[in-house]
Structure formats: C-alpha cells, structure tokens
Amino acid sequence: MENQDNPSQETQERWSKDPNNWIWGIFYYNKEDKRLMPPKKNPMMGFTTNFANPKSVFFLIGFMLFFVFIVSMITRKH
Length: 78
Prior knowledge:
Elements: H1 9-17, E1 22-23, E2 27-28, H2 54-75
Antiparallel strand pairs: 1-2
C-alpha cells in the first residue's frame, strides 16, 4: 500500500509523464499529488507548483509577495 503523502518513485514518474497532469504543457495540475513542490517535467530544471493543491498555491503567492516586498524595500527612495 502506497502512502498518499509520499508516493513511490514509479508513481511520481508516471504522474510527471502523464500529459493530462500538465495544462498547456507548463502548469502542473494533479489532485492526487499532495506534494507542494513537485519536480518539473525535466527534473534538472528544478521544481514547479502543483496548482491542484491549495497549500501549494498559497505558498507560491506568499513567496511572490515576499519577493515584491524585498524589491520594494531595496528600490525605496528616502
């Protein structure tokens, strides 16, 4: 029996190679996959967001807001 939060390597590869889990070939959307940051189609390219997982989307939004905050603090005029 496979743990839903920690899928086997074979299951992860099957999910990654399934074109039905990719919207327009670039956005990963898989409701079965509970990972926040699964690897991209080409694992050497890093990680992506699973847009079917609300926690993953909130993480992405929080990261972007943090980045905007840092940039605004750096470029802020006194």
